[in-house]
Amino acid sequence: MFTAANTTDMNERKQSANSKPEADSKLIYIVDDEPMLLELASVILQPLGYTVKTFSDAVAALESFRAAKPFPVLLITDYSMHAMNGMDLIKACRQIQHSKQLVDAVEALLGR
To answer: pLDDT tens for residues 64-100?
Structure first.
């Protein structure tokens, strides 16, 4: 899906694949009820310079999201979990902090 939010100025310096993220764009939330997947995400993302906060349940992730300053730049969530599913978590997070990129990604996944 292409939106104006995804375009960049041709004169902007692009980040190379090997460069680390800037300090203000480092926090990522990972939500999954499978401990092995939480560990895998951390092992992959932390060496790239990201701060990864993992949650085994969506309700705890939502509570943390409400209190977050700054908000995470990315939320990666499983769909099927016990107390709250991934789509409900995304909807609740959107009500707290609307993200155009999150909306685009979800709509692309749902084929809208």
So the answer is: 999 998 889 888 888 888 889 888 998 899 888 876 5
Q: Residue 112: how many CA atoms within 13 Å on its side-chain side?
A: 6
Strand-pair category, 74-77 with 27-31? parallel
Whole-model pTM? Answer: 0.69
DSSP annotation of 75: E
Long-range contacts of 99-103 (CB under 8 A, 24+ apart): 100/3, 100/5, 101/5, 101/6, 102/75
Q: Which range (4-8, 23-27, 49-53, 62-66) has the least confidence?
A: 4-8
Is residue 79 helix, strand or coil?
coil
Domains of the chain: 25-110 (3.40.50.2300)
